[in-house]
Design a protein that fits this description.
Layout: H1 4-28, H2 36-61, H3 70-82, H4 85-91, H5 96-99, H6 111-128, H7 134-154, E1 156-157, E2 165-166, H8 170-188
Antiparallel strand pairs: 1-2
């Protein structure tokens, strides 16, 4: 059963995974043109698993138990990694080299472009279609976790609100990843319902 201690363990496991993916996996992967695809796949996989982990936590903290099973976790993973498809769209090429060599990050990596419309959809759905609220919320969790993970390397890109990037130190990045499911849980709960940890299995 998911107890408060289990939420803490799942959060600690998320931090351990991020430390491993960010600091230990890159140095041991081979460098050069040939392994570039492998490195891209590892990074995309890390984005996917981070998004799935976010949904695992969020669906237990907010009243979203009915959409917390394996198919939904898999969907969150897909959403977390598919965002990088915009690199290829911006490059107008299926070449990995062209996709990662763009002078500017593609449009869906601008945090306001993603966050503001999805936040609006979450709030609208909460009033008009509460049973569908989980979908924009999942996309918001998956894509914000992707942006935050990118941010420790390149900063948060705040276009069109700003033309620059907001630097995010590594400890702040980890703190944001941990805080994200708790912040989003406040969007999907009824105003009178307190945040809680559900008595639901973590697996």
């Amino acid at each position: 059963m998911m107890k408060p201690a289990h939420v803490g363990l799942a959060s600690a496991a998320l931090v351990a995974f991020l430390l491993l993916a960010d600091n230990f996996a890159p140095p041991v992967l081979p460098r050069g043109p040939s392994p570039a695809l492998l490195r891209a796949l590892v990074d995309s996989g890390a984005h996917a698993l981070t998004a799935g982990w976010q949904w695992l936590l969020l669906s237990r903290i907010a009243p979203l138990e009915r959409v917390s099973g394996p198919p939904y976790l898999l969907l969150a993973c897909v959403l977390g990694s598919v965002l990088d498809a915009d690199h290829f769209i911006a490059a107008r090429s299926l070449s990995l080299k062209a996709a990662v060599s763009q002078p500017q990050r593609p449009l869906l990596h601008a945090t306001p472009i993603v966050a503001i419309p999805l936040l609006a959809l979450v709030l609208i759905a909460s009033r008009m279609r509460p049973r569908l609220q989980w979908l924009p919320c999942m996309a918001l969790a998956a894509w914000l976790s992707h942006h935050v993970r990118d941010a420790y390397r390149r900063g948060l890109w705040l276009w069109p609100l700003s033309h620059g990037s907001l630097p995010v130190p590594y400890p702040a990045y980890l703190a944001l990843e941990l805080a994200l499911p708790w912040l989003l849980a406040r969007l999907v709960r009824p105003p009178s319902q307190p945040l809680r940890v559900t008595a639901t299995s973590i697996v």
